[in-house]
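From the methods appendix. Each design record in this collection lists the tokenized structure first, followed by the designed amino acid sequence. Records were kept in a plain field format so they could be parsed without special tools. The example shown here is representative of the layout used throughout.

RECORD:
FOLD TOKENS (169 positions):
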């Protein structure tokens, strides 16, 4: 079994085209689905390493979660709560993007961060199409109760995006 670094080295040589004798890298434009989960953090780390090895561009995709339906009860009690929740959500996503930029910068990688609205799979598929992404990297959950829901998301993404998908544990 290969170590993570050995695998990364082998993959980067293969994807750069040196193994196949091609002069052009296989992946030039990498995107990573990024949120606050540990799985997304691991995916971001792998994406940064791979972008470094391949000299590829790197972008994060973060889909903004809708406020839960029960916030309507809070709004009924205090109409100003919606603005407060919106401001808190904006600060949260801004900090999340800053964390990704700092992590990439520490490795010498320039990263573009993107916040998307909408249903998760549709938003990611649209982004991948518009930005001509070559490789989408996503974090995979390790044995949890949401495995079936996650798998359906992963499966749908893999079926709908026109690029390669790399799942990271």
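DESIGN:
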């Amino acid at each position: 079994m290969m170590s993570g670094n050995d695998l990364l080295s082998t993959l980067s040589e293969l994807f750069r085209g040196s193994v196949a004798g091609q002069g052009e890298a296989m992946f030039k434009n990498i995107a990573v689905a990024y949120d606050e989960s540990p799985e997304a953090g691991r995916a971001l780390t792998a994406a940064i390493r791979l972008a470094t090895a391949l000299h590829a561009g790197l972008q994060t995709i973060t889909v903004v979660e809708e406020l839960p339906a029960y916030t309507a009860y809070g709004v009924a009690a205090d109409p100003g709560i919606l603005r407060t929740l919106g401001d808190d959500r904006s600060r949260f996503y801004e900090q999340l993007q800053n964390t990704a930029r700092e992590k990439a910068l520490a490795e010498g990688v320039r990263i573009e961060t993107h916040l998307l609205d909408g249903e998760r799979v549709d938003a990611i598929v649209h982004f991948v199409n518009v930005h001509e992404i070559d490789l989408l990297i996503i974090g995979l959950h390790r044995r949890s109760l949401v495995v079936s829901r996650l798998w359906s998301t992963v499966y749908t993404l893999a079926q709908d995006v026109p690029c390669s998908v790399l799942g990271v544990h």
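APPENDIX NOTE: DSSP finds six helices and five strands in the chain.
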